[in-house]
Write a structure and sequence with these properties.
The complex is a heterodimer of chains A (339) and B (82). Chain A is α/β, with parallel strands linked by helices. Chain A is 32% helix and 23% strand. Chain B has a single domain, classed as Non-ribosomal Peptide Synthetase Peptidyl Carrier Protein, Chain A (Orthogonal Bundle). The chains are: A alpha/beta (339), B mainly alpha (82). At the A-B interface, helix 7 of A face helix 2 of B.
């Protein structure tokens, strides 16, 4: 027997800003520089091979007591300065990481507390090296949908905690650091449509070696992150180039309109191959931060952007294509107006 | 669709030349990609993807490690075409 529902009141809804843009970007690089020679103390490799294979010359390593929360907070404060805002104006903190070493609580509320953004909404997202671009997507929609006015998006990693320094395939790749952006309202579109997706069938391509349950029950070694380098290269270049093109197309932009290309700093060979596949004109500045910073996963794009803006390599207000891809496998790309 | 061994070898030599700058004449059947031609695992992937396109075949990731010599690659492509 069906009951007739009471007359239902209409819910109020919010509407947000017409458009959103990135107001500021900040970065934090740990002090300690690790050279290829130091990496070669624990793997059979050479400075020459590492440079040739990946383009990496040095990477940064967080201090033993330096946490993901510490690094994220430092980058967030820089982003606030760059945006000309104060922490109390932040409505939501989205923190992308895979190296916060607690199942719970998330790092984001601790960062919000640290920087003075409480009671902002705060949560972590886990999308590996694509985390920052996922965060920008969410922030863009939140600002335009009305759930937040200013969103702090952070990409941060302490990959040194999850790197096997004796694994020849990955010991040299990873670095530590944090990058942050503030997304807020805009009177022009500052963030293009995101092209994103996943391919979970390839989950073993980049993965933590064992689950925590396996570690607990079978006393296996510390589960570092490892990858099938060749498969990652092929996917990152040949499957991701069309995604980058789609992000341009959906933004209504031609490659020639771009000022900057900021791919996830996974490997210099991937960056070079993507530039070639996309036939990017020579006037476009290419992010190559990986040479000094290593692969910092979720932090890599905001760190590269911050470096290029600070050095003048990227113009303030310029158009940048950012594309990130990583463990999952997952990916996200969008065109943005740089602050 | 199936090509002769020479046609495949010539095509492969062109691809190797485009990726590495190596003379096509140096891409001989008995040469090892890594030891003789100094092609690293990432360049190998680019060569494999270009070969897939040129020869109309699929070369899965886990097959690539079996292609140690130029002859291995030519044989694989010929078999995949037939």
């Amino acid at each position: 027997m069906t009951t007739i529902p009471k007359a239902r009141p209409t819910l109020s809804t919010t509407s947000g800003a017409a458009h959103a843009r990135i107001w500021g970007i900040g970065g934090y690089r740990p002090e300690r520089v690790v050279t290829n020679d130091e990496i070669c103390e624990t793997v059979d490799s050479s400075d020459e091979w590492i440079r040739e294979r990946s383009g990496i010359i040095t990477r940064r390593q967080a201090a033993p007591a330096e946490t993901v929360v510490d690094m994220a907070s430092a980058a967030a404060l820089e982003a606030l300065k760059s945006a000309g805002l104060v922490a109390s104006q932040i409505d939501a903190v989205i923190l992308a990481t895979v190296t916060h070493p607690y199942q719970t609580p998330a790092a984001a509320p601790m960062v919000a507390d640290r920087i003075g953004a409480t009671p902002a909404a705060a949560f972590d997202i886990s999308a590996a090296c694509a985390g920052y671009c996922h965060g920008i997507t969410l922030a863009n929609d939140m600002v335009r949908g009305g759930s937040a006015q200013f969103v702090l998006v952070i990409g941060v990693e302490k990959l040194s905690d999850f790197t096997d320094r004796t694994d020849r395939g990955s010991a040299f790749i990873f670095g530590d650091g944090a990058g942050a952006a503030i997304v807020g309202p805009s009177d022009f579109p500052g963030i293009g449509p995101t092209v994103w997706g996943s391919d979970g069938a390839k989950w073993e391509t980049i993965s933590q070696r064992n689950s925590w349950i396996e570690v607990r029950d079978h006393n296996v070694a510390w589960p570092a992150i490892t990858m099938q380098g060749q498969s990652v290269f092929r996917w990152a270049v040949y499957s991701m180039a069309p995604i980058a093109q789609a992000a341009l197309d959906q933004a209504g932009i031609k490659a020639d309109d771009l000022d900057v290309f900021i791919p996830h700093q996974a490997n210099m060979r991937i960056i070079d191959a993507l530039v070639k596949q996309l036939k990017l004109p020579e006037h476009i500045a290419i992010a190559r931060d990986i040479a000094d910073t290593g692969n910092t996963s979720a932090a890599s794009i905001p760190l590269a952007a911050q470096r290029m803006l600070d050095s003048g390599e990227a113009p303030h207000g310029g158009l940048a294509l950012q594309i990130a891809f990583g463990a999952g496998l997952v990916y996200a790309a969008q065109v943005v107006v740089l602050p | 669709m199936a090509q002769s061994e020479k046609e495949i070898l010539d095509g492969l030599a062109e691809i190797v030349n485009e990726e590495t700058g190596l003379d096509t004449a140096s891409v001989e059947l008995d040469k090892s990609f890594t030891d003789d031609l100094d092609i690293d695992s990432l360049s190998m992937m680019t060569i494999v993807v270009n070969a897939e396109e040129k020869f109309g075949v699929r070369i899965p990731d886990d097959e690539v490690k079996n292609l140690k010599t130029v002859h291995d690659a030519v044989n694989f492509i010929a078999a995949a075409q037939s």
